Amino acid sequence: MYTSDSLQLFIKWIQAFDIRILQTEEDVEKKFILPMFQYLGYPDLCRQSKYTLTSNNLDNPAKQLKNAQIYFATDDVEQQNANTSLVIIIYLSPNTNYFQEAIAQAKFYSNYLKPLFLIITNGYSMKVFQCFQYHREELIFDAIIDTLRNSQIAENIYNQLNFNLIKNINKTTLSNFKHPQFSSIEKYLRRHIEFGKILEKAEFEPRLIQEGHHLAIIQPKVLIKCNLPQAFGKGDCLIQFSSVILRGLQITLNNQQILGQLMTGLHTKPEWGCRHFLKQIDADTFEASLGQTTLILSELEAADLCLCVDTICQEYKKRIIEFEDYLETWDFKFVEFPDIRGFHLFSVDVKLWRMMHNFIKKFNYAQGKSEWHLFDQVNISIRISRGIRDHAFLVPRLGNCYSALSNNQVDILYEINDIHIATLERSNLNSWQEDIGIRGTWAAKYTKNWLIEKFIPKVINYYSQEFQVLEFDLDKNILNYHSQHTILKEMNEVKDLLPYLRDIQIWLQRYRENFAASSWQQYYQVFTDLVRNADSAIAGLDYITMNLQKIMWANSSADISRGKIWHFKDAIYCLDIQVSKIKNCKYINSWEADLITRVFIWIIENGKINHSQGQLNVAKQALLPIWEQCRFEMRHVYPYR
User: Fold this and answer.
1) Over residues 423-449, mean pLDDT
2) Which distant-in-sequence residues (6+ apart) come within 8 Å of 452 by Cβ?
3) Which end of the chain is more exposed for a tag (fewer CB within 10 A), N or C?
4) pLDDT of 65
């Protein structure tokens, strides 16, 4: 049947349709919707009247769309999904005029089925919405059915909804932005009423979509689609803009760019100067550096970009921290080479390594069933496994590959193996975390202890007569590294805070952006109260004075002159001023936080401080969130700057 014939039949049917035959919802479905879509060319096999959604985002993972007809581009039931959906029709009782609930229901399900059109009708009137990827729906028809008796209106509806046309539409390229590109900036266009509605339609519809490791956050001006890191794998993201000028621009950031550019200054306003990728040019214009692309953004675009970045990076950061927490890797140095990513557990003498390597070759898990047949050599990696369940992957590296260790040392690395990660993701477990334990994936700390306390003594004992190695030589053959940090919850002395404070000071020395003041208020207050109880005869008062004067002079505070002789009480007075200041500002300079931290370190290290257990506990609580941010950024952000 030719299109012209189909169109004439559709017009003839709709002009002859008598709405008085509709009495119930079933009548609307069978006497109006079904014949209309038959005349529009939709095969019956492409229709589903009951469709069950399965999505991680639904409260009920098997929620059913009721009072609906759904048409797909294919008659293959197995292929009838979000990729092939065309139209959702919600039908109501003929005496129902309240459409809002049905519209909300249709829009909700369109987030998952992603149709091209939404139709809501009670048989007497009809609303037709055209859907666009990430944009708001556009209402293209809203009238009573009798309106379709007009041949021109009926033809327009036919040309927009007929099956042969819309089944071939590419959803990923569909756009409702039909007018020519403008050469002037968006701000200028918004001053003109004739362009206002067009620009509003061009904006994205705000929403958040998460399916497994895929996260999309959408604001009116910006959308970011992100592949989140899986078990410390590498993620990436795609950034798009809705504005006239930036329409069609797609910026892809890899794992290193996400960490190095986007991760600092989360949940701060664009104008505060806390974001590494964002620079304010004037009152309402910003320069954004995203990957290899630099672009100019309006104030609204910068705000929406920051909101999207906050959501993406918060989840991205959470995934990385969870990985390190579960696998207990924080105490080990992270190392990365073109072919290897892992954590340095400890180092061994090269002679001991040869013994370990020979033992591994003799005790391949495929060649025996003893408790020590646990190993397999995969390239240079050592797989600790029984063939069914992998426990850990180890990589030997000569010490001078990344450090000053001599060639007589071999570093043992706990490897992040992509094969192992992929195996975990294909398992029947809900998440890779469920596999961590002695019978599954070994954490780094357990692996290190097992190697030193069980495996290496076994190797030495096995070869003791052949190589004449005695057990008491073990400590001479292992170069082990111990953390200098006392665990915060086990800390009982104020000087135990110093390693944490030094970590923060080193981090601050490298930091170039501002900080949100709210995140440092408790730290300033608590440590000022702690050090005010120090002995006033503290050595090195000149060093304290020098750092505090830099802050006071930079802030044009003339309360303390440059020529006067300072006493310890003057230093505390200056600290109290900074505590008051930080409570009344939105952001602070990182160099000021650096100088304040230097003062805290000096007083704690060189002074005698009278403090209660309560003060120490409060200090630990104030220190922890800042130190954890410091630890994350020094490990995962600054290597990519």
Assistant:
1) 79
2) 346, 478, 480
3) N
4) 58
Half-sphere exposure in the Cβ direction for 179 (13 Å, CA):
14
Judge whether 405 and 396 are in contact, CB under 8 Å. no
Residue 586 is predicted with a pLDDT of 95
Residue 188: per-residue pLDDT: 55
Per-residue confidence (pLDDT) for residue 564, from 0 to 100 = 65
Amino acid at 400: N
In the block, tokens 């020519």 appear at 180
Q: Give the per-residue pLDDT at 177.
A: 40
- As beta bridge partners, residue 390 has 385
Amino acid 458 reads K
Residue 409 CA to residue 399 CA, distance in Å, equals: 5
Relative orientation angle of helices 613-636 and 521-531, to the nearest 10 degrees: 130
Q: Give the whole-angstrom CA distance, residue 176 versus residue 201.
A: 8
pLDDT at 482: 64
Q: What is the pLDDT of residues 346-358, one digit of tens each?
A: 998 888 888 888 8
Residue type at 323 in one-letter notation: F
258 alpha carbon, distance to own chain's centre: 9
- Check if the beta carbon of residue 478 is closer than 8 Å to that of residue 348: yes
CA atoms of 248 and 254, how far apart (whole Å): 19
Distance of CA 350 to the CA centre of its chain: 41
CB atoms within 10 A of CB 21: 11
- pLDDT tens string 220-233: 999 999 999 976 67
- Residues 169-191: what's their mean pLDDT? 48
What average pLDDT score do residues 554-571 get? 69
For residues 256 and 640, the answer to whether their CB atoms sit within 8 Å is yes
Write down the pTM of the prediction. 0.71
> Is 380 in a helix, a strand, or coil?
coil
Q: 3-state secondary structure string, 527-573?
A: HHHHHCCECCCCCCHHHHHHHHHHHHHHCCCCCCCCCCCCCHHHHHH
What's the pLDDT band for 332 if we cut at 50, 70, 90? Answer: very high
| Number of Cβ atoms within 10 Å of the Cβ of 159 | 11
- Cβ–Cβ < 8 Å for 635, 336: no
Q: What is the DSSP letter of 91?
A: E
What is the band of 562 on the pLDDT scale with cuts at 50, 70, 90?
low
**Cα-atom radius of gyration of the chain, to the nearest Å?**
33
DSSP 492: -
Amino acid (one-letter) located at 394: L
Distances (CA, A) of 353 to 348, 413, 460: 6, 13, 11
Residue type at 386? R
Which among 202, 203, 206, 226 is positioned nearest to 218, based on CA atoms? 206
What residue spans of 401-497 are helical by DSSP H? 418-426, 444-450, 456-462, 464-467, 474-477
